[in-house]
Amino acid sequence: MSTSTPVDSPETTATEPPLRPAFVTTHWSVVLTAARSDTTSAHDALAKLCEAYWPPLYAFVRRRGYSPEDAQDLTQGFFEHLLGKNAVATVSPAKGRFRSFLLASLNNFLAGEWTKARAQKRGGGKVVSLDTQSAEAWLNHEASHNFTPEKAFELRWAITLLEQVYRQLEEEHHARGKVELFAALRTTLAGSSSGAPYAALAQQLGLSDAGVRVAVHRLRRRYRELLRETIAETVGSRAEVEEELRDLMRILADV
Is residue 129 in a domain? Predict the structure, then answer.
């Protein structure tokens, strides 16, 4: 797997804190609010989701055989359509998984709306910011795998989600003034065989070996908690969290 984002084992331990008690603000609640409301805040919240999850959609389009230029236009066109009035008005209350909704919506868009839109204009308005240079670098790196469009979407989705978890964990440590601790221990998220030995970390941080082990345990536990919370935002019910987590691990293991 070609990503710098660490992936730790998602096992649950009896000492881990529980997930947040309710699905208060999830990706689905944002979509459903946008479907029922034409307010600026609802539109902006949905646009923020588009900003976060464009890489897997772009990867899917590229693997469908479109050029980088057409793929960029298509992705922007899809988001313009998704953010348009009534675009999400028919979302099923059953909801399911957010990634499945996005992929199905993109497929529907490819089948009709994009053809009409592309006939009218090329290089239309910029809806979200797309860092296509990094997206193309990832696609080129994974080219030898010859992924299907669906596989490229799945893998890029998993990586995008893990990158969000990593960034949130990093931000938490920065907010608590523990930048040096996170910088030293972040490689341990990938497993005990990665990064510097605990003895070297202890010397670097001025801690005992036992202190480093406790810090690593806490870091991994928080990582797992954030991972489950992030997944919880993309599914329709708490019961689906573990199933989606298993799918995520399967997707990454298959690379």
Answer: no
Mean pLDDT across the chain, nearest whole number? 79
The pLDDT value recorded for residue 91 is: 63
Q: What range does the domain containing 50 cover?
A: 27-120+134-253
CA 207 to CA 184: how far, in whole Å?
Answer: 12
Task: Evaluate whether residue 10 is within a structural domain.
Answer: no
Q: Per the confidence metrics, is the pTM higher than 0.90?
A: no
Q: How many domains does the chain have?
A: 1
Cβ contacts of residue 158 below 8 Å, gap of 6+?
A: 248, 251, 252
CA nearest 158: which of 66, 55, 16?
55
Q: Is residue 133 within 8 Å of residue 145, measured between CB atoms?
A: no
- Residue 149: pLDDT above 70? yes
144 belongs to a structural domain? yes
In a domain, residue 19? The reply is no
Structure token pair of residue 142: 């994974």
Q: Based on the number of CB atoms within 10 Å of its own CB, is 222 exposed (0-12), middle (13-18) or buried (19 or more)?
A: middle
